[in-house]
Amino acid sequence: MITESQKDLIKGTIPVLKEHGVALTSHFYNRMFTHNPELKHIFNMGNQQNSRQQTALATAVLAYAEHIDNPAALLSAVKHIGQKHSSLNIRPEHYQIVGKHLLASIQEVLGNAATPELIEAWKVAYFQLADLMIGVEKEMYDQMIQQAGGWTGWKPFTVTKIVAETAEIQSIYLKPTDGGKLPKHHAGQYVSVRVFLPELHLYQPRQYSLSDASNGEYLRISVKKEATDGKPDGMVSNYIHQYFEIGKQIEITAPTGSFNLIENEKPHVFISGGVGQTPLIAMLEDLVGKDQNKAITWIHGCRNSELHAFKERVEVLENQNQNIISFSFYDEPQPSHSDAIAGWVDLAKIDTSYLPQEANYYLCGPAGFIKKHFQYLTAQGIETTNIHFEEFGPASLQLN
């Protein structure tokens, strides 16, 4: 157990972590990948190049130091990270490797300021957190196995169908290669896909939302082809678009994630930008499949009609269900787009009757998109507990 004096030592490093946290975590990742290059197959190397992983880890370390007196306050964030980790098949032995290099990095970056007492305090603190994470992730792995058709780790799936939703987005239909059953997943969850990238000589994982409701027949992901500019960020999506074909086998992990439909009597409002609508379309399909009559507002923004994925499907659902109303925003509207609103998604342009105070709000898109609409909704008096969002990327211990 960590002592009070060790807690004080940890709290004493907070100013340093605030100022030099990213420098510390950057040193850590360089050190770890130098000594354990096999871990490059687990980490998203695109997030290494754009510094998102280093920033997320720095934020997590800082949050843990700030809450060292009451780590339970971080439990919700720990569960979120656990879902990311279980989707990447992170196991207890990985925490030993990470701990070794993190403690060494603290010593190397802080120099003489890293006294033996301080390093021992961080060692106790780190493995206290590691034990918490391992316990949370064990529960998640156990739940995956206990489901009918469930599994842990990487499992082979076969591509059975490919649909070009737009010039940029493809929907990939997947079935277990062994012909086994599929577990029931919650609309809004995601899976990790792992492919080998010859240009990096690495397996690289990426997480994609399941873009259809659970049906027991297939899993569907919808992937946007991202510009690479020679960087790893878009390499997996480009590989999928270029090389995925019917019959190809890939490896994926079991569905996970807590960005799910809220089960209550309130209406639902879905707000998405670009490919951010993928988990939301699964939620919409799930609601329609349950034959619910709750009011549903669907708001989506993209560049133009040609790049508007699932446009026809939403129109069909809207025509079949009087409780659904949809709004489209196009950055590059054409004269034929008379039914769309010109410009970026602007909730102020939508009648407030479609944005009720007591509703479940779901946001999905880039970070700036989520922040803009979260601030707008709260300014209109919407309770933060009614606003749910998903941003893809490295998880951290931020308290939102």
The main sheet comes to:
6 strands, antiparallel
The value of Rg in angstroms is 22 Å
Beta strand %: 15-25%
Structural class per helix/strand content? alpha/beta
Molecular structure report:
This protein is α/β, with parallel strands linked by helices and 400 residues long. It has eleven helices and twelve strands. The chain has helices spanning 4-12, 14-35, 45-49, 52-66, 75-87, 92-110, 116-146, 235-243, 278-289, 311-320, 367-379; strands spanning 155-164, 169-176, 190-197, 202-209, 219-224, 249-252, 268-273, 296-302, 324-330, 341-342, 360-364, 387-390. The strands form two sheets. A six-stranded antiparallel beta sheet has the order 4-3-6-1-2-5, with helices on one face. Strands 10-9-8-7-11-12 form a six-stranded parallel beta sheet, with helices on both faces. 35% of the residues are buried.
Throw out a few tags for this protein:
400 residues, alpha/beta, 11 helices, globular, single chain
Q: What's the arrangement of secondary structure elements?
A:
Layout: H1 4-12, H2 14-35, H3 45-49, H4 52-66, H5 75-87, H6 92-110, H7 116-146, E1 155-164, E2 169-176, E3 190-197, E4 202-209, E5 219-224, H8 235-243, E6 249-252, E7 268-273, H9 278-289, E8 296-302, H10 311-320, E9 324-330, E10 341-342, E11 360-364, H11 367-379, E12 387-390
Parallel strand pairs: 7-8, 7-11, 8-9, 9-10, 11-12
Antiparallel strand pairs: 1-2, 1-6, 2-5, 3-4, 3-6
Helix pairs in contact: 1-7, 2-4, 2-6, 5-7, 6-7
